[in-house]
Amino acid sequence: MPKPILKPQLRRKLLLIAVFCLLLALMLELYTFGLHADLPGRLLRSFFVLFVLSALTLLAIVPGVSRGVDKLLKR
User: Fold this and answer.
1) Kind plus residue range of the DSSP H or E element containing 41
2) N or C end of the chain: smaller count of CB under 10 Å?
3) Could you list the residue ranges that cross the membrane (predicted)?
């Protein structure tokens, strides 16, 4: 049996971030521009930007800074 690429915990976190970003992007696009023919393209772009920024912040930057501060303070 092949080894899974992502651990179940990480997969669940990414799924939650993706669902939240999709809903946020949909709300922002509908509020700002309404229903137009180019909604799917704008929605995809805004989802991708929100997802990348959120995932990097929550899964890489915050734990990295926390680990660095812990190492600096020698906890």
Assistant:
1) helix 39-56
2) N
3) 47-65
